[in-house]
């Protein structure tokens, strides 16, 4: 049967394509507790405007996927949701709240514009509907879902308990709702919902009383009990992004009790991670911020900033680069973090035990390398080659050139590490260089060069020699982006256009060529740039560029998704029409 949870989740999840935002921090954010470990915010109105401006509506998407009969279950479910009293022009929040293992839960929080309509909607769609009241809010308890739907005049909260341990191991709360556009039919929905819910649903002896009390707590959170009181969360919502993600690791660790060392909890106190996604014309912009608490900030400040060395990129011998990353990170920060957790003694004992060097320490390893690293790949070639096993057959062979390089730090520490007995099986010293040991020099093994300045690995010896020769020059890059990397700790780039162009059409199944053509015509490239730690946080910007620069990126993605769904449905229909 179609469950009430499915109806509410339909409203929220489908609204991820059709939902709302305002210029200030959304009112519904005040109902999210500080113990929320993960929060997803969906800015509906902003997303809606971007779709509607380009002529996309839910009705058009449904009709593209299904018959145009407005009586079909998907269209009917959407129409019901539109008339449910839920404010689809407001922000929606999906939160995972970590308390103790048997007190953790998931909430979906949204705006309510007509409480009377919402009550009527529940009464119509929920067979076990029994309206109850607690203080200044009303609620319905779904016994078969062990879930609660509560609402006041302005907000609706769906709440369901989960086992925090299973949730962190990959479980998801509830199943995909029945009646979703292009989704499962009612029987499929029940099967999926039951299978997934079994993984994570946690039912206390008196679940209803437990979650009614928690809902009462959420509806009456004090300002200092709300996640909105945390500056990282508040600043994220002020940015008014299309989609926002907030992660607070502290409640996750706290829910584990003694399983997490106290000094690790102390180190990570005040650390948060946020991400904002905006769908713009011709690109998707993602901004990530990593906030550090006092103890972690002190470690970052101690070592200043290590810049990415762009020269490692500039000498790459190809003008057909598919992607690269240059990165600068002071490894000694790892040592300070390990020491702060009190695990440095154990680390040193383990190193001596497995390395065979009784004098080797964690500090030696971290001092041996200065943390400036580089990786690039180029010259992708996909081709058919005759099979060496089956005459007349062929195999698809993929060749790509690549180089990884890392600078050496303190030379004395480096020699100490390289002299470790455990490494002698893999490398051997020749003059002032280290090379692969004879037993490792097998066909297909990467080429290796190690001296007291640079560790370099490549796909083969000619590529390695060309890179180390220093006569090559990286070409075909966006120099305006490369110039931005200088002075920053990380820059990365990937060229989807070149990768797609390297895949021959004859390697694509006939049935998939139409979609493959659309995919090839979708993405151009992507860039990522991380800025130095500013004393409080570190910012990273990722930009996904599309080939069509004048059309909104979300519209392009939705159109592609709709076409793929249509193709899958048509293939399924064709398969079921075949008589064997």
Could you characterize what this model shows?
This protein is 36% helix and 26% strand. With 580 residues, it is of the alpha+beta class. It has two domains: 26-169 and 206-241, no CATH class; 261-577, no CATH class. The protein has an 18-stranded antiparallel sheet, sandwiched between helices. A hairpin with a 6-residue loop joins β19 and β20 (537-546). α1 packs across α4 (73-82).
Overall radius of gyration: 28 Å
Distance between the termini: 33 Å
How many structurally independent domains? 2
Contiguous uncertain segments of 5+ residues: 1-23, 170-202
How much helicity do the residues have? 25-40%
Strand segment tally: 20
| Large-scale geometry | globular
| Average pLDDT rating | 84
Structural class: alpha+beta
Main sheet: strands, sense, barrel: 18 strands, antiparallel
Total helical elements: 22
Topology:
Blueprint: H1 4-14, E1 36-42, H2 44-53, H3 58-65, H4 73-82, E2 92-97, E3 104-111, H5 115-125, E4 132-134, E5 137-142, E6 147-151, E7 155-162, H6 164-168, H7 186-200, H8 207-219, H9 231-238, E8 243-247, H10 249-254, H11 262-268, E9 272-280, E10 283-291, H12 294-302, H13 311-314, E11 321-328, H14 332-340, H15 344-355, H16 362-368, E12 369-386, E13 394-408, H17 411-418, E14 427-430, E15 433-436, E16 447-450, E17 454-458, H18 461-469, H19 479-485, E18 490-495, H20 496-501, H21 513-520, E19 523-530, E20 537-546, H22 553-577
Antiparallel strand pairs: 1-2, 1-8, 2-3, 3-7, 4-5, 5-6, 6-7, 8-9, 9-10, 10-20, 11-12, 11-18, 12-13, 13-17, 14-15, 16-17, 18-19, 19-20
Helix pairs in contact: 1-4, 16-17
